Amino acid sequence: MNRVMSARWIKVAAAVAAAGLAASACGTVKMGAAAVTGSSRISSATLTAQVANLDTAYRADQAKNVKPQRPTTQEAQQVLTWLILFRIYDKLASQHKIYVTPAQAQHQLAGLTSEAASSKLTLAEYVSAAGALPPDLLPQLGRYFAILSELEGRIDGGKTPTTSAGQTKLDSAVGHYQCVASKDLGVTVNPQYGVWNYSNYSVVTAPPTLAAAPTPSSSASPAVTTAPC
Fold first, then answer.
1. How far apart are CA 86 and CA 161, in angstroms?
2. Which of 22, 11, 4 is CA-nearest to residue 128?
3. pLDDT band with cut points at 50, 70 and 90 for residue 15
4. Contact between 13 and 199 (Cβ < 8 Å)
5. Whether residue 12 has pLDDT greater than 90
6. In the chain, what are the domain boundaries?
7. How far apart are CA 137 and CA 132, in angstroms?
């Protein structure tokens, strides 16, 4: 029961893809923050709690011989990536006047539930094993996919791509809008957890030149990557 990755998760990877790793810059992370997005922050306490939720899900998965498909040594980076992506898509929705209802978000989760069932998995097992997502964040995931679906529906008249070139064009357009939203938020990550990488829209380990950064504090200057859009 190791193969739980589906087209839905592949679509996530495509949606967050963008071209090239940008040059590093500096910012300031507020005390106690794992990351800052715009005028708000994602607290280290929130991140710690959600990593614990993912660990709990992994233990439940492993008891049923469901193995994680992402490195289990990178839970903090993976979970922080999700928390930042949810903020980015909220910003994107605001920019494009996309209003999704709870019913639309639930519809997306229903689709994931069907995919999970086809692999003989519960939804919680499916999102944790395939996506490194704490099951507690399922409502946010439903909203994320609903916003993505609405955005795609506005691109090129909402036509479903029938060729690989068409899909690449759609993914590129989505990536551009996501890049603009990310740039407007000015995402910065506490160097304790890594840096925000615009090449794949995820928190990644800081380059070796940043490895000796001092313990984060209110005056710490974390490295971030500048948006290529």
1. 25
2. 4
3. very low
4. no
5. no
6. 7-214+221-225
7. 11
CA distance 179 to 196: 12
8-state DSSP, 49: H
pLDDT at residue 159, rounded to an integer: 80
Q: pLDDT digits over 16-62, tens only?
A: 433 222 323 334 555 689 999 988 999 999 999 999 999 999 999 99
Between CA 139 and CA 103 the distance in angstroms is 11
Return the closest-CA partner of residue 201 out of 221, 174, 222.
Answer: 174
Residues 116 and 131 sit within 8 Å (Cβ to Cβ): no
Name residue 41's beta-bridge partners. 36
145 closest CA partner among 34, 7, 35: 7
Choose among 18, 37, 17: nearest CA to 27. 37
Q: CA nearest 191: which of 221, 169, 167, 218?
A: 221
Task: Average the pLDDT over 128-135 and give the result.
Answer: 94
Average pLDDT over residues 194-223: 62
